[in-house]
Design brief:
Number of strands: 14
Strand order of the largest sheet: 8-7-6-9-11-10
CATH class of the largest domain: Mainly Alpha
Radius of gyration: 26 Å
Structural class: alpha/beta
Oligomer: single chain
Distance between the termini: 45 Å
Shape: elongated
Largest sheet: 6 strands, mixed
């Protein structure tokens, strides 16, 4: 049974709606995304109340969200309100108005619950074991200490980019005194958390401030890929960015590449919180996450619906399998090709000298090498490369994703147009291209050994003997005439990449 799930997150600065589609085969994907700036938390820190105009903006926005949910024929709506609503004396009044006027039931969740959802969104989409996760919103910041992929501590602090901007007047030009007072206030709260001090773990950032930090750093470095999720920057880059923002007035900030104009007035408070986290933890890098509370809400629902643990064991293979299901790939063929390719990788290790991580990239490329058929069978390898390059694959660095895309695109043989592609050429150096050619060779041979997609070559044992790369083939009774004819065409490629003569025999 297919299902449309709407996820609504009403925060102190923004209201967001995503619609996820779950298909009959349990594949899922994002079909709609909308963000509106409501500034619900404006003035809250001084009065303890949500302003009438802010409440009206929120109600009007939720009416629009309700309309979009009807258009997309949503079956289930999961809607939460965070810091501004839970901290305001008149928060319950706003929830009643939204229920009456928009027909949406919002749950006001605690800071700990918010941190837990953010954790689920991150741990199931980033390949990290130990880290300090922060989810920085307009009215609060949730801090989670992650150890061994589990949340060891979750703390919510009652300040964020909007509330600190209001409190310290950092909307436009910031004086040294204002900046010093802001820093002291933040550090005073952070220093109360003894487990943060000098923990020296990577920082993972969730929320608009973290995303904008990543986008600005990408622009400053002419980064060729616009994907924010899993983008990394060091503490020196963070320090330079913080100083540039703190010394600029509002008009100057609005012109900074990568910074959203809607966030220019609250960014100084936001980046000062992040800079303070760098200082107190002694962290050397920030990992930006494009996934947080909304993704956590969805995955909690989806994984429970499909009877899976809330923390996915292998996020890379989970996301790869989701792609296979979504693009309706030939799953038995994909897994069989992957097994054959891995057997050659293992048996010819002495000749190629690649490492276990390269084996993982080979598996990803092998599993996804045919998904381009969804677009067009002819030249489907190129379409597969494009889909892998732009996929929501979790657990790969950006460079690894580009490399996997090239390998998938070369499963019928190398093509110079990939080398000329600006995106690939800026990510991959000569050693990467050499690696891609070797991995693509294993994939091309494996694809040839299942040319008919009937599993006629049931198993492969690969090895090296007397300057020969040999394959012992376990073949079905029906024979594998087409497959054996296919691999004969790869002898020159094997000789070029491995310096060995390709031979094969029936086991």
């Amino acid at each position: 049974m297919t299902e449309r799930i709407a996820i609504i997150d009403l925060g102190s600065n923004s209201a967001r709606l995503i619609v996820m589609h779950i298909y009959a085969n349990c594949a899922y994907n994002l079909v709609y995304n909308q963000k509106e700036t409501v500034r619900l938390g404006e003035g809250l820190s001084s009065s303890g109340l949500l302003r009438a105009e802010a409440m009206q903006r929120a109600v009007d926005t939720l009416k629009i969200f309700a309309h979009m949910c009807r258009l997309f024929e949503v079956n289930t709506t999961l809607a939460v309100a965070t810091a501004a609503v839970r901290n305001a004396k008149n928060g319950p009044e706003l929830l009643r108005r939204i229920q009456d006027e928009a027909g949406i039931t919002l749950e006001s969740i605690s800071g700990k619950a918010e941190g837990g959802l953010g954790f689920l969104g991150v741990i199931n989409t980033l390949d990290v074991t130990d880290a300090v996760l922060f989810d920085l919103g307009g009215g609060s910041i949730e801090l989670t200490l992650i150890r061994n992929r589990r949340p060891e501590r979750i703390v919510s602090l009652p300040f964020g980019a909007v509330t600190l901007t209001d409190r310290f007047g950092t909307r436009d030009k910031v004086t040294e005194v204002q900046l010093l007072q802001l820093r002291r206030y933040i550090m005073r709260h952070l220093e109360k958390l003894a487990w943060l001090a000098d923990v020296r773990l990577p920082l993972i950032g969730v929320g608009g401030t973290a995303r904008n930090i990543a986008k600005m750093d990408q622009k400053r470095k002419n980064y060729p890929f616009h994907k924010v999720h899993n983008y990394r920057l060091g503490h020196l880059s963070m320090g330079d960015l913080w100083q540039a923002l703190a010394s600029a007035d509002l008009k100057q900030r609005m012109k900074l590449p990568g910074l959203s104009s809607e966030r220019a007035d609250i960014i100084v408070a936001g980046v000062t919180i992040v800079k303070s986290l760098f200082d107190i933890t002694g962290s050397d890098r920030l990992i930006a996450s494009g996934c947080g509370v909304r993704e956590g809400l969805f995955l909690k629902y989806y994984l429970n619906r499909t009877r899976q643990p809330e923390i996915i064991d292998d996020i890379l293979l989970h996301s790869v399998r989701n792609m296979l299901l979504f693009y309706k790939g030939n799953i038995p063929h994909a897994y069989h090709v992957a097994e054959l390719a891995e057997a050659m990788f293992d048996g010819w290790q002495y000749a190629h000298r690649l490492d276990p991580r390269d084996r993982t990239l080979l598996r990803v490329a092998a599993l996804l090498h045919d998904i381009g058929i969804t677009i067009n069978y002819y030249d489907h390898s190129r379409h597969s490369a494009y889909l892998v390059e732009n996929a929501r694959l979790f657990g790969l660095t950006h460079r690894e994703q580009m490399l996997a895309a090239v390998v998938a695109g070369w499963h019928n043989g190398p093509s110079s147009k990939y080398v000329r592609n600006r995106l690939y050429s800026e990510f991959l150096d000569e050693s990467d291209w050499q690696k891609a050619r070797k991995l693509a060779l294993f994939l091309a041979l494996a694809e040839s050994l299942d040319k008919t997609q009937m599993g006629l070559v049931q198993k492969v044992a690969a090895g090296i003997s007397a300057k020969c790369a040999y394959l012992d083939l376990a073949i079905a009774e029906e024979g594998a005439t087409i497959e054996l004819a296919e691999i004969a065409g790869y002898q020159k490629w094997v000789k070029k990449e491995l310096g060995l003569q390709l031979t094969w025999r029936q086991a």
